[in-house]
Specification:
Layout (H helix, E strand, L loop, with lengths): L2 E6 L4 H13 L3 E7 L19 E5 L5 H11 L3 E4 L6 H6 L1 H23 L7 E7 L24 H20 L3 E6 L1 E3 L8 H10 L4 E4 L5 E6 H14 L5 E4 L4 E3 H15 L11 E4 L14 H7 L7 H14 L1 H8 L4 H10 L1
The structure holds nicotinamide-adenine-dinucleotide (NAD) and 2'deoxy-thymidine-5'-diphospho-alpha-D-glucose.
2'deoxy-thymidine-5'-diphospho-alpha-D-glucose binds next to α6 and β8.
Length: 352
């Protein structure tokens, strides 16, 4: 094996797609997936590649400096792609300190372990931090976009923790010369997303004829990107991005939540053989999310022009694929919405 790459958070939604892409595309890399397997981590996501000779899994918590340092000595990676995080805004409102611990302290731990491991020899190395468009705050509905130079204005404990981690990554670059790259991506959707996030939650509720909770009036806007397109962007940026740079990744695909859910209802009416309009009757407007950002929209022209990445799928096509995946992978969803996960799921559900 010529190169060892650590991917943190590889058992989660986006991480599992990145791990699969790298394991299949780069047989000469050893891909080490470092994941604590929190409620969001699920090795089922990787069952198709778990026996590949160039894949290893290490159950480890990024906030545990000693363990992380030991893993660096054991594998001596030349690259780190860092996705491990607490990722759900609603949970950050309930438990902000968990987000500080994982997203800020965890990232600092990794940065410090990497700095020590690569001390004196940074050549050919790269620490790639996966961040979010939420660090830029909220846009009005005025046709403006987030660019790489938009001022950071996070509003939720989640986005504040991600903003803080971005600052630490840049600080380790500026202070210690750590070779880094950062990307800030918009909302992802696709297979294996934990069903607490809007799209899989809605698919699952529609399927079971349960209310679909829409926060406020459903007028908030998100820019949706198919998860495999994000994984492709991560591959391109990891290999070709410039040291110290930031790249925005987005789908150029803005939808109000209510329009998105109506579209999803129409797709599911067809697929489930229901009367047109039947699923939309499940739409239920509930109390708004505290500090709910109105609109996110990404300008990804830097990534498109400099590195040649483009989103590959039209949203309707991606949404159909996603619905098909959830309908044919009922066991995956049922496993999450029962057993260990049931308690949290019901608590959230009852609060709506
Ligand atoms: P996810 O919640 O599905 O997965 C997170 C993974 O991190 C899980 O496998 C979990 O077990 C692991 N993890 C959590 N705490 C850990 C710890 N202390 N040590 C080791 N592993 C730990 O998240 P996701 O939606 O796949 O997001 C992945 C990354 O991409 C995050 O950094 C997130 O901020 C960023 N991001 C997500 C989106 C999106 O739409 N989901 C968009 C832009 C950026
Ligand atoms: O923009 C990138 C971010 O996208 C990522 O950094 C986050 O990790 C990811 O979770 C996502 O954050 P959002 O808060 O935008 O995603 P979520 O699926 O939670 O919500 C999408 C929109 O739908 C948002 O406006 C809130 C609304 N919503 C969400 C849920 C769960 C509802 O109306 N009802 C719901 O039940």
């Amino acid at each position: 094996m010529a190169k060892t790459i650590f991917i943190t958070g590889g058992a989660g939604f986006i991480g599992s797609h990145v791990v699969r892409l790298f394991v299949n595309k780069y047989p000469d890399y050893l891909i080490v997936n470092i994941d604590a397997l929190t409620y969001a981590g699920n090795l089922e996501n990787l069952k198709d590649i778990c026996d590949a000779p160039n894949y290893k899994f290490e159950k480890a918590d990024i906030t545990d400096f000693q363990t992380i340092t030991t893993l660096f000595s054991k594998y001596q990676p030349i690259g780190v792609i860092h996705l491990a995080a607490e990722s759900h805004v609603d949970r950050s409102i309930t438990d902000p300190f968990l987000f500080v611990r994982t997203n800020v302290m965890g990232t600092c731990n990794l940065l410090h372990a990497v700095k020590e491991a690569w001390k004196g020899d940074m050549e050919g190395k790269r620490f790639y931090h996966i961040s979010t468009d939420e660090v830029y705050g909220a846009l009005q509905c005025d046709g403006t976009f987030f660019t790489e130079t938009t001022r950071y204005t996070p509003h939720s404990p989640y986005s504040a923790s991600k903003a803080s981690s971005d600052h630490f990554v840049r600080a380790y670059h500026d202070t210690f010369g750590l070779p880094i790259v950062i990307s800030n991506c918009s909302n992802n959707y696709g297979a294996n997303q934990f069903p607490e996030k809007l799209i899989p939650l809605a698919i699952n509720n529609i399927k079971h004829k349960r209310p679909i909770p829409i926060y406020g009036k459903g007028e908030n806007i998100r820019d949706w990107l198919f998860v495999n397109d994000h994984a492709r962007a991560i591959d391109i940026i990891f290999h070709n991005g410039k040291n110290g740079e930031t790249y925005n990744i987005g789908g150029n695909n803005e939808w109000t939540n209510i329009d998105l859910i109506r579209t999803l209802c129409a797709i599911l009416d067809k697929k489930l053989g229901r009367r047109n309009g039947e699923s939309a009757e499940l739409i239920t407007f509930v109390k708004d999310r505290a500090g709910h950002d109105l609109r996110y929209a990404i300008n990804s022209s830097k990534l498109q022009n400099e590195l040649g990445w483009h989103p590959s799928l039209q949203f309707e096509e991606g949404l159909e694929k996603t619905v098909d995946w959830y309908l044919t992978n009922e066991a995956w969803v049922d496993n999450i919405t029962s057993g260990n996960y049931q308690k949290y799921y019901e608590q959230q559900y009852n609060q709506r």
